[in-house]
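Repro:
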Amino acid sequence: MPRPGPASAPEDPAAALGAAAELLALLQARGQDGASAAVSPSQLRALLAVEGAEGINLRALGAVLGSSPPSVTRLCDRLEAMGLLTRSPHPSSRREVELRLTPRGRAVVGEHRAIRARAVSAVLARMAPEA
């Protein structure tokens, strides 16, 4: 099959955009499916948020996730019970706790990223290079 040259445009930009959107949705699903059978998508989102803001408190995590305080507390209870997250007292406020990933929590996040990277690489390998 001939490949388009640098000066040629895609035959149907809308179809190309649609295909790209489908690939992104597929990658999202694959990344969630393979991350860890024991970690739900909402738990993974929480782990990623804590990783990005180490020491975040429950209220700030709730704002990031768009969840109510009781929901965030239950979510963190489950993550802590799974050994993925720790809570420790805030150094300057006894009413707050700091959330941090455990080594196992970091491993789950790393596994998720590796799965996603493999999926992206597989999709990119199937794409025709631009000449």
